[in-house]
Amino acid sequence: MSARRMLTGMFLGLGALALAATAVAPAANAAPVPVTSLNCDGDTYTCTAGLRFGDGRWVAQWNVNVFHQSAASHQRATRSADAPRGAAAPVPVTTLTCDGDTYKCTAGLQFGDGRWVAQWNANVFHQAVANAVPTASAKTAKAPREAAAPVPVTALNCDGDTYKCTANLGFGDGRWVAQWDAAVFHQS
């Protein structure tokens, strides 16, 4: 990882923490709310989800890796730390999948040749497992091996009380989810 990217990530993370600390969603509406739009930005390395809440200006935002699929192959082959940066403005997400083997969610981006993606880490677990065991144990409960391939996301919600986004996964009995931390704040 390059020093520039590490510093950028650190400053983005600190900024997100500052925003989360100063712009708290009202406690009366603590339940997860549906996501109305999802965009990712190759310049700031963030994804932003518009939330169906209040005046419609609430968003959830989280850090992601943004890269071109062929650039990632080239990067692995050459061991280069810096993938080319071409998607400078937020662009719509065309597909969203999560993988129970790699614990990553991947969003296809509507940009260029269609091979640009954003990817981030997510906890992947079965809701029954999460409800049956303590939280710490639920986070370590791995998805079964047959859940190894990326599966489509059927619903995406973000919660202003827990500061988490949850993606329902089109897998098995329908109770598998991916979940990750997100800054939730009002656009002023």
Give a description of the structure.
The protein is built from four helices and twelve strands. It has 188 residues and is of the alpha+beta class. A hairpin with a 6-residue loop joins strand 6 and strand 7. It starts with a helix and ends with a strand.
Could you say which overall geometry the principal axes of the C-alpha atoms support?
A: globular
Structural class: alpha+beta
What's the number of extended β-strand segments?
12
| End-to-end Cα distance | 34 Å
Uncertain runs are 1-29, 74-87, 135-141, 143-147
Helix-strand string? HEEEEHEEEEHHEEEE
Mean pLDDT: 75
The share of residues in helices is: 10-25%
Rg from alpha-carbon coordinates: 17 Å
Q: What topology does this entry show?
A:
Layout (H helix, E strand, L loop, with lengths): L2 H20 L10 E9 L4 E6 L6 E6 L1 E4 H10 L11 E10 L4 E6 L6 E6 L1 E4 H6 L2 H6 L10 E9 L4 E6 L6 E6 L1 E4 L2
Antiparallel strand pairs: 1-2, 1-5, 1-9, 2-3, 3-12, 4-7, 5-6, 5-9, 6-7, 8-11, 9-10, 10-11
Properties at a glance:
alpha+beta; 40% strand; globular; 188 residues; twelve-stranded antiparallel beta sheet; disordered N terminus
Brief overview, please?
This protein is 22% helix and 40% strand. The protein has four helices and twelve strands, in the order H-E-E-E-E-H-E-E-E-E-H-H-E-E-E-E. Strands 1, 2, 3, 4, 5, 6, 7, 8, 9, 10, 11 and 12 form a twelve-stranded antiparallel β-sheet that branches.
